[in-house]
Design a protein that fits this description.
It is a single chain. The protein has helices at about 10-15, 55-60, 95-105, and strands at about 1-5, 20-25, 30-40, 45-50, 65-70, 75-90, 130-145. By secondary structure, it is α+β, with helices and mostly antiparallel strands. The radius of gyration is 16 Å and the shape is globular. It has a 6-stranded antiparallel beta barrel. The longest helix has 11 residues, at about 95-105. It has one domain: Electron Transport, Fmn-binding Protein, Chain A (Pnp Oxidase, Chain A, Roll), CATH 2.30.110.10. Strand 5 and strand 6 (about 75-90) form a beta hairpin. The chain is built from 3 helices and 7 strands.
């Protein structure tokens, strides 16, 4: 098996080609990993959630990592890890454009609100605390690929 490092452009292609990732965050020295659906554009991951543990933890510590895997045939795979910063996109002046952008990117995927649990109204209601749109501004990406 041959394992090689992916270029930044190849990592971006993997991120753009998928919409399911594992999000890792940490609080008080403890890690937490959870699946999220996302949309990728311009070195930013956009996602949606309802309030809960991951949002609380990312608010406390905005430094996160995301793992995206691209399984292929037996013995072949691609894996990308993206490190970045959590930024909430509240329904307020100064964030509306990015929130609407996140909505438009995410809504191109079916069932994009899962595993966020509650499908938001179309469009999401202003100041609806049940619906949290956020982005992860990427600082660094790295990836590997395995081939037989």
């Amino acid at each position: 098996m041959l394992i090689r490092t992916l270029s930044v452009a190849e990592c971006a292609k993997v991120l753009a080609g998928h919409n399911l990732a594992r999000l890792a965050c940490a609080k008080d020295g403890r890690p937490y990993v959870v699946p999220i659906y996302y949309a990728y554009a311009d070195e930013v991951l956009y996602a949606f959630s309802i309030p809960g543990k991951k949002i609380d933890w990312m608010r406390a510590n905005p430094h996160v990592s995301v793992l995206v895997e691209s399984p292929r045939q037996r013995g072949q795979w691609k894996s990308v890890i993206a490190d970045g910063r959590y930024e909430e996109l509240p329904e307020r002046i100064g964030h509306k454009r990015e929130r609407d952008h996140a909505w438009s990117l995410l809504s191109t995927h079916s069932n994009w609100w899962e595993p966020g649990a509650l499908k938001p109204a179309t469009p999401p209601l202003a100041d609806d605390a049940r619906h949290i749109f956020f982005r992860i501004v990427l600082d660094e990406v790295s990836g590997r690929e395995a081939k037989e």
